[in-house]
Design goal:
The chain is α/β, with parallel strands linked by helices and 446 residues long. It folds into five domains: 107 residues, Roll (Ubiquitin-like (UB roll)); 73 residues; 78 residues, membrane protein fhac (Ubiquitin-like (UB roll)), CATH 3.10.20.310; 75 residues, membrane protein fhac (Ubiquitin-like (UB roll), Roll); 78 residues, Ubiquitin-like (UB roll), CATH 3.10.20. Helix content is 26%, strand content 29%. A five-stranded mixed β-sheet has the order 2-1-4-5-3, with helices on one face. The chain has a three-stranded mixed β-sheet with strand order 6-8-7, with helices on one face. Strand 13 and strand 14 form a beta hairpin. Helix 5 crosses helix 6 and helix 8 packs across helix 9. The longest helix has 17 residues.
């Protein structure tokens, strides 16, 4: 009689609380010679399939299986349960089949990791990030720099942090949450369960180049009512305050000290920011990387001059002028990034506009709706773009505005336009819409 050992594949829930699916037994691809009565053939080799974020050795360490031990369904099922309990795997299965020689098994643990995984950080905890990370690393071999945000994972790591912090006298509960703080960044944050106090007011010391009142008003619009953390305040300073200094050439402005104190007349905190304004920088090299467009034309469109005081409001305005130039020449999907490098010794900042022109679109055809057979030809005659010319993305709006300003129609009604982009041929068709009042028109010379 031949002995078949079932290979089990069991799917685990992606999110804690979902019911587990029933195990589905699968027979191995071939029989092994029967083991002696009362014995099981051993595992001769053991590998992992499907892993991406975790090393095979770490997965096997948690699974607890080793070559040489008996290949029994109970041993593999216990390994599967240990891996599922980590919360790092969406599914865990295993299969084992006869190894060469017929007196052992070649085993494979198949895993599907939970995706996506996110970076993490610590906030408002009384130990430094390195020490907290070390506490998590010591808890098991499957710790990684990026974690899935499953309930099981967040609760386990929060509990480990809480146990470590309890040694310092910390008594709050630690929680882990997935937070979206910027448009392009989602991060897991481990912090105390007690929410931080809200910001009531932000005041500044050390400001001279920009008046403190201007800084306070700028922060009032974005910070008041926001839960206080030093990191969040620094992010708001970078977005709301730093540009005001960079518009004055203060490229090395910094905020070396941020403190918070309980507000005397409201629930929350008053935040005090000390500003180190730094020296004034000048524009050094102003260049462009704009293949296949000529860099000289790009720099000319930006309108900046070396030797002027660095003004990053003006640098941004230069970027907008370059974008208009791209749109005017058919590059309606162009993009411009600003690269800057600081020369602290010379107190200069070099600016390079990195231009991604994208495909060049040409004008295809014009369609006019809302006009009669007498007035439509006159509009077509006034239209300046010819088929095959680079499509100026700003031209349709400019054209309708000129129609209105020049009084081409009497009692001109509502106007609008739409564009139809053909990606394959890289052409753009335009439709102009005129209101009913434009049917009764007074064309020049009528």
């Amino acid at each position: 009689m031949l002995w078949f050992v079932p290979a089990l594949l069991v799917l685990a829930p992606c999110v804690a609380g979902q019911p587990r699916r029933a195990a589905q037994p699968v027979r191995p691809p071939g029989p092994a010679a029967p083991a002696p009565a009362g014995q099981s053939w051993p595992i001769e080799s053991l590998t992992v399939a499907g892993h991406r974020n975790y090393q095979e050795s770490a997965i096997l360490a948690v699974a607890g299986l080793k070559p040489g031990q008996a290949a029994t369904p109970e041993a593999f099922e216990a390994a599967r349960e240990r891996l599922l309990a980590t919360g790092l795997f969406e599914s865990v299965g295993y299969r084992y089949e006869p190894a060469a020689g017929g007196k052992g098994y070649r085993a494979v643990i198949e895993v599907a990791e939970v995706e996506p995984v996110y970076p993490f950080r610590f906030e408002d905890l009384p130990l430094g990030a390195d020490e907290l990370r070390a506490a998590l690393e010591a808890a098991g071999p499957l710790f990684a720099a990026r974690l899935p945000a499953t309930a099981a994972v967040l609760e386990r790591y929060a509990r480990l942090l809480q146990n470590r912090l309890a040694e310092t006298g910390f008594r709050d509960r630690v929680v882990g949450r997935l937070v979206s703080e910027r448009q392009d960044e989602v991060v897991i944050v481990f912090r105390p369960a007690t929410p931080p106090p809200a910001i009531v007011y932000v005041r500044f010391t050390g400001s001279e180049a920009v008046e403190a009142a201007e800084l306070q008003n700028a922060m009032a619009g974005v910070a008041v009512g926001v839960p206080y953390t030093e990191q969040r305040v620094r992010e708001l300073l970078d977005s709301a305050i730093r540009p005001r200094y960079e518009a004055k050439g203060r490229m090395r402005v910094s905020f070396p000290e941020i403190t918070a104190a309980e507000a005397p007349d409201a629930r929350g905190v008053v935040v005090t920011v000390r500003v180190a304004e730094g020296e004034v920088y000048e524009l050094g090299e102003v260049g462009a990387q704009s293949y296949p467009l000529p860099p000289g034309g790009i720099v000319k469109a930006a309108g900046l001059k070396s030797g002027e005081r660095a003004d990053f409001d003006a640098v941004e305005e230069g970027r907008e002028r370059i974008l208009r130039l791209l749109r005017k020449n058919g590059h309606m999907k162009g993009a411009v990034k600003i690269e800057r490098t600081l020369d602290d010794a010379a107190r200069k900042v070099n600016v390079i506009y990195q231009v991604e022109a994208g495909p060049r679109f040409t004008f295809g055809a014009l369609k006019v709706e809302g006009l009669d057979i007498l007035t439509e030809p006159a509009v077509r005659k006034l239209w300046g773009l010819k088929p095959g010319q680079p499509f100026d993305a700003d031209y349709p709006e400019f054209f309708l505005n000129r129609i209105r300003e020049d009084g081409v129609f009497d009692n001109l009604g509502q106007t609008r336009f739409s564009i139809q982009v053909d990606e394959a041929s890289q052409t753009v068709n335009v439709t102009l819409y005129f209101g009913a009042a434009a049917r009764k028109s007074l064309l020049p010379g009528a």
